[in-house]
Design brief:
Glutathione S-transferase Yfyf (Class Pi), Chain A, domain 2
């Protein structure tokens, strides 16, 4: 998809991304999904008027919906998502309600956007979210575990901040955190091990990248998996006062980082140039696609926004060939059609 900035290319990619668990590729709020012209929703309804005097049939935002048709060698399905005007996003598969955790039964999605250009040198939380989105395609139970962990963490943090040192209540929440953190960390370790087996499939066109998980809990699991849950519960109990002051738990699956080592440069990807970091990110996505094709026979759909922004001609041409070889459906956007000359016989072009 090519067209001028602001034409709506990213809107199309975001619409597709809403068929993955979470808030889509922009991590947007519900009110941001509906089209607004200078804040006007049409029929005289504006964001300001809704915030002061909500209409009966528009509790927070006007209704909106998206539908996609999926065709595979095994099935045909129609998925739908949207809102009836509330703050909850609804999901349907063939007219039956489903949860976000069930989306993986139908579709795997992965994406790269300009906001991710600094992924390797940015906050650890962004790298965890990126990794967890990929993991969900291989381990569908991963998403519900993350939800369980976040809920228990938030409830425990609230108790500690309020000074309510109820041992029974806190112990129950710490048990829930431990029971979620162990499989979350195991999923991350197993996924990275599988990914690293495929990440050199595209050398020399794309660099050799090796991922590693820096995690105290992961190190404990490798050392003594049988006692890792007890170890984590003990650490949480011991750190209650520190956690109350810090406002966050110092132990758990949320306390880890994902490191990418750039083999070609023999350095951490965070120390590479912006272009090299984007190419390293693409290496991970290509390895992810190759792994799913090989191990699940279920290729993902890739969403690549402003792909050519930091890619030179060599890597654009190489990527066109690799995606064609993988037979992975990819939705790619860019402002300049001339940058996609190597795709002419490999892609459908749309002007937006």
């Amino acid at each position: 998809m090519t067209g001028p900035n602001g034409a709506g290319k990213t809107n199309i990619l975001e619409a597709i991304s809403l068929f993955a668990p979470g808030k889509g590729l922009r991590n947007a709020k519900m009110a941001d999904f509906f089209y607004r012209d200078n804040g006007d929703w049409g029929n005289g309804v504006t964001e300001n008027s809704l915030s002061t005097t909500p209409l009966p049939h528009y509790p927070t935002t006007p209704p909106w919906s998206i539908a996609i048709d999926l065709t595979s060698p095994f099935s045909q399905n129609r998925l739908g998502t949207g809102s009836n005007g509330g703050n909850k996003r609804l999901l349907h598969a063939d007219e039956n309600s489903i949860s976000q955790a069930e989306l993986g039964d139908y579709l795997s999605l992965a994406w790269a956007t300009p906001d991710m250009d600094g992924l390797w040198r940015g906050a650890a939380s962004a790298r965890r979210k990126f990794l967890d989105r990929l993991i969900y395609a291989l381990y569908p139970d991963h998403w519900p575990l993350l939800v369980t962990l976040d809920k228990a963490r938030a409830e425990r943090a609230k108790l500690l901040s309020d000074g309510r040192m109820d041992d029974n209540w806190l112990s129950a929440l710490e048990l829930a955190m431990a029971q979620a953190s162990i499989p979350i960390t195991q999923n991350r370790l197993r996924y990275i091990e599988s990914l690293n087996r495929h990440i050199n499939d595209f050398v020399p066109d794309f660099p050799s990248i090796k991922l590693d998980l820096l995690s105290p809990l992961g190190a404990e699991l490798k050392k003594d998996a049988a006692d890792a849950q007890d170890w984590l519960q003990d650490r949480l109990r011991e750190s209650r006062l520190r956690d109350a002051m810090a406002g966050s738990a110092l132990y758990g699956a949320h306390r880890c980082d994902v490191i990418a080592h750039h083999g070609g440069k023999n350095r951490n990807a965070a120390e590479c140039s912006t272009g090299e970091q984007k190419i390293a990110l693409m290496s991970v996505l290509l390895a992810h696609a190759a792994m799913l094709c090989a191990e699940k026979a279920k290729p993902p759909v890739l969403l690549l926004d402003e792909l050519a922004a930091h890619f030179d001609e060599y890597h654009r041409k190489a990527l066109a060939g690799i995606l064609s070889q993988l037979k992975v459906q990819s939705w790619i956007s860019g402002a300049d059609e001339n940058l996609f000359q190597d795709w002419k016989d490999k892609a459908l072009f749309f002007k937006v």
